[in-house]
Amino acid sequence: MIISTSIWGDIEVNEKEVYRFEKGIPGFEETIEFVLLDQNEAPFYYLQSLQQKELSFVLVDPFIFYPEYEFELPDSETEELEIGSNLVVRSILTLHEQVENSTINLLAPLVFNPDNRQAKQVILHQTTYQTKHPLQPTKEDETIRSKEGE
Description:
cytoplasm; Flagellar_assmbl_FliW_dom_sf; flagellum; translation regulation; cell projection
């Protein structure tokens, strides 16, 4: 299938790369179909809207930057996404001109079920994670992690 993007122009994607966000992504509720692109730019991925060629997000695997990152997916979210044992977690990256100032959203990870192609941005509650963690963990982030482990 061919899709139009503002970054790469028209590209061919496999329908198996398309994920459905039943309720959209907060702030973009009207857009529910996205393709998860791996453009061989590890550790970065792109989430491209099928409905709006201008809408895409840069994603990263949060565990690469924060190996001790963890959260419990609420049962309601697990049931909604029909997750068995297979899931993929990515976080939205906010890029800045100086890469070292870029941030990663650990408060609201994107959870993907590759088995049924459903996905959702999950807002974590009762956590010290924030929407803007630096790509390079700071002493403060290490303190947060050590407090969570208590």
